[in-house]
Amino acid sequence: MNKVPMTAEGYNKLHEELKYLRSTARPEVIQAIAEAREHGDLSENAEYHAARDRQSFIEGRVAEIEDMLARAEVIDVSKLSGDTVKFGATVTVADEDTDEETTYQIVGEHEADVKTGRIAVTSPIARALIGKAKGDSVEVETPRGQKFYEIEQVEFK
User: Fold this and answer.
1) Potential cystine with 108: which of 6, 72, 117, 146 (Cβ 3.0-4.6 Å)?
2) How far is CA 81 from each of CA 78, 103, 125, 154, rounded to the nearest angstrom?
């Protein structure tokens, strides 16, 4: 059983989603199925089939979240320190071609959101950064070819 690394914030978000699915979404979909059944013939009842599909999605997501929480290895980023990049680090890198700076936080897979600068620990750039320190140059294989970055800053917040 593989552990799933995640930040405390990611763990809490998953726990809240699970709570919502169990306490709100599940009862709502059960009610929708009951109402759709009252409309008669189930074989041609689009509302019934849509509600059943939604119920299937909810149950699948509940099982997925329960599995992740059971295997969670919560890492408190605020207690981490050091000069090298590791899980939870917030890293500022500069593109060596354009000098454009970008900041990423390395998080668990389910927490990743590139728009907010949170990248999965399994992503190519995170794998290239892990173990490196400020001033190091890293090479990342991207869909558009190789990119070279210099690590400007490593912090844990």
Assistant:
1) 6
2) 8, 17, 20, 9
